[in-house]
Amino acid sequence: MTAFQLRTGILSGAAAIALVAMTGGGFAADDGAITIATPFTFDNIDSCNSSSEVGLIVRENVVESLTHLDEATGKPTPRLALSWEATAPTTWRIKLREGVTYSDGTPFNADAVSRSIERMFNPKLDCLNRGKLFANIRLTPKVVDPTTIEITTEKPQPLMPVFMSFLSIESPKTDFDTMTSTPVGTGPYVVGPRSPSDPTVLTRRDGYWGGNPAVVKATYVRRDESALRASMVQVGEADIGLNIAIQDATNPETDFGYLNGETTRLRFSFEGPLKDIRVRKAFNLAIDREGLRDGLFNKDYEIATQMFLPRVNGYNPDMKPWPYDPEQAKKLLAEAKADGVDVDAEIPLISRINFYANGQETMEAMIAMWQAVGLNVKLQPMERAQWLKLVNKPYAENRPAMLIQEQHDNNSGDATFTMHFRFHSTGQQSEFGDPELDKLIDAADAATGDERVKLFQQANAYQQEKVVPDVMMLHMVNYMRIGPRLNFKPDHVSNTMMELSRINFR
Amino acid sequence: MLPYLRQRFFQSAISLLGLIVIVFFLARLTGDPTDLLLPVDTPASVREEFAQRHGFDQPVIVQFGYYLANLLRFDFGQSLHQNAPALDLVLHAMPTTLLLAFWAMTISLLIAVVAGAMAAWRPGGLFDRIASLISLAGASIPNFWIAIVGVLVFAVWLRVLPTSGTGTPWHWILPVTVLFVRPCGLLTQVVRSSMLAALSSAYVKTAKARGVKTRSIIFVHALRNAMLPVITVAADQAAGMINGAVIAETVFGFPGIGKLLIDSILFRDFAVIQAAVLVTAIAIFVLNVVVDILYSILDPRVRHN
Lengths: 506, 305
Fold this sequence. Notes:
The complex is a heterodimer. Chain A has 14 helices and 19 strands.
């Protein structure tokens, strides 16, 4: 090595050391300010959308709704609405909170509620709430006085107080014909100026009717990698890391698992051999759910008996998971085969790529269990767009026998959002029609109170025992990494709504 | 030179037109954005209404006609996912990627030229063996591995660099490193082999015989003649940096064109896909013209031809 080469090498090394030394170690956040690392984009946060992003940032933090679903019971509680009553089968009269102002100074009143509802139904806007929740329900608002409003529907809506929790009431100054990326509401925070490259920042405002939350400023940064989000909290760059993958949630002191409201299952298409209930039962009996859970997930995950969690009206606590009984499965298949059912036919299992953590491994393990009882299932992973074509009606005419990987969340507090859609013969994702079950669901939809709960519980038990429309799997878990500065514990609603006012500092 | 540039411009315009057609139709083969932008459980009637509002119910050829007509007015369409003009989003993201690529290529070239030239001066010597080993490793290690290990070592263990994000010059170190390692390894090898040929030529022997300093022989006489293949490979690497940018921008949360492109593909945000591809293609066209000009400066034969 020449002297010139040596000199160059020494200079390069010195420069590298100086660079490292100059950086120091501090990337900590200011007092009262927190940083939340999320995998979400916050591109479309108009409050008339009911997406995860809107739930995480906007709902109740920036734009409040009329009611709020209690985290423990799922029952509607007052928020911007103080009280409500059905004055006629199709009319609800709502008394509004007084003395509330929007962060832009506009007073909150019945006119603002009326405009907000009309804006959601504006056909020029792509409001997801309209498509998801109010596609078949037209709300007609009528201002009675500044603090009273009546909402009328074409058919009786006993769930109106629940629906009201999705009615985010944005400022009347919000543009009526275009979606906004800086929503304004009555909540304790305001959305700062935004550009596509900057993190989204919420700042606490003065004059909020509900008092001052501890968090002064929240910065939401997008990081796609779970390991990176976890690392950010570990080194103090972020205070909360959302959606931490199970393999990255390695620190019991900072990583909290919580049921995220999602339930997984494999749905049967009622075609070919899957028309036979014995075959569908055999599919269930062949699965060792505990083994799957303990091997590929962990005990934070719960084996599901139905498509929603106990906080949802209509959850049936008496339903039991399918036992693991491969011998019984073989017996049922033999009976079906003897009756001419083609139980040896290859049945595709349509999975969705990157649906949830360890999804692919789970599908492969289940296929091995089915092979052990003589079923012939072949995995067909699909990208989301392809998968979606198979999920919704109208189905293709030559729909084959198949299993479809699904995940469903019901955070609305009521079973109707699941039952009608999946198990009623007119449901958009229903694969069958059972008049008895239709009758039960229709009756439950029309009922209120305990009667409604009882009827949905019956419908739930009926579909699992008499129809067997699926292979139920697990109630899923999310992990959140929380930094040592914060006094906050996530729960099952954190996945769809994270109120900053619930976060405190140690 | 001008007639040559004019010719290149027309050739590139034809290529761009072909690209527009291919991207437009291929994007639509990948799926209907209606399904991806609306929640899974949206009723069919709402889906139809959405598709109608945004013209997705029209035959693809009709959609293409509208797209071309708008393009002639420099209207690249609206991002359905981000609810903003597609061109604005692309032009907002472009500078970040260009800056990342600029620093990565500059550092790559500087290191490659110095290390490759020095390695070629004494082939088989200690420096040559070390440079060859490191450059081979650099050219072979996947970007995402460098990114993850970089975060683990420098941000989590040593805590001397931020894990991700933007804001200070320190935030650029890991992403630029991820981008420059591979081209740097490749270019070092190209410079070395190109310099080996140049250093064995007659004019270098003459310079040595006349007692010209080693540094002048390497960096003044031989390097200029060895640079033509280096520029070709460097231009190729610069154009391919969009691939590396996807990794760097995704892992480190950099709001550049690579990340924007991936997001728009995932959401079938056609307007953004089309605008991003078109703008990137124009940037590559400009880069190629710059390379041609550099060629003509370095090699008089190109200029005269």
